[in-house]
Amino acid sequence: MDNDDEDGALEALFKQLEEDLANDDLSVDDDDDEISEEDMARFEKELAEAIEDVGGVDESAGDSLLSSGDYGNDEQIDRSEGPELKTWQLRRLAHALKIGRRKTSIKNLAGELGLDRALVIELLRNPPPKLILMSDSLPDEAPSKPEVKELELPGSTTIDVDEVGTTEIEPQMELPVHVMSAEWSARRRLKKVQLETLERVYLRSKRPTNTMISSIVQVTNLPRKTIVKWFEDRREQDGVPDHRVAFKRSLSETVASS
């Protein structure tokens, strides 16, 4: 009997447990359908705290971004805060930028502008837009013309070297000798005293020796080439042969000597 009583008690207990579980499930379902005011208040509080936390994170991130942005602006301000260049300094830098850094003495340019050498190098290496526009507006340098060498005669006007060496005077036999000599003198731009000296030597010797020519160079201060050319032209004007004719005795002198 004892065993039957125990089995009956256990069955009653299990049945009660099943009923309790069924009642708990129904109460849970009802609670899921309806939210109490306490739950709403708790949810609102948690939501407000969550929003506040998110706002704090965003604010700190924004502050960090602003601080980094301010740092970048400070760098830009520091870079832009250089010495304010004057117009003549900008023009000089623009000219140096035009011809190139390799053709410019940075040391001399910095001393001329009164600026630090490092600043001048930086301006030429990374020129600002204003300096680039000014450099582009400068005209290109014209190529230098070759200089014409001139021969300067002491006490007289200068004549071209090519004129002395290559000018040829065509003889004009129909003109008197003194007229041709005057024209030749005008073309050669010789002084009157120099021309008179050459004329006196020519009257004594149509073919002066090297020693005589050296003496004429010392007296007249004329180039040796000019003096030799003058005697050649003068002999051509007078019809003097280029080479001397060998001396020949006449027939009467030959008979008399025999």
TrEMBL record:
Residues making up the signal peptide according to the UniProt record: none
A Pfam family assignment: Homeodomain
Gene3D superfamilies tied to this protein: Homeodomain-like
CDD domains: homeodomain (cd00086)
Organism: Setaria viridis (Green bristlegrass)
Protein name (database record): Homeobox domain-containing protein
GO molecular function: DNA binding; DNA-binding transcription factor activity, RNA polymerase II-specific
Lineage: Eukaryota, Viridiplantae, Streptophyta, Embryophyta, Tracheophyta
Assigned keywords, A-Z: DNA-binding, Homeobox, Nucleus
Region (Disordered), start-end ranges: 51-83
PANTHER family noted in UniProt: HOMEOBOX DOMAIN-CONTAINING PROTEIN, ZINC-FINGERS AND HOMEOBOXES RELATED
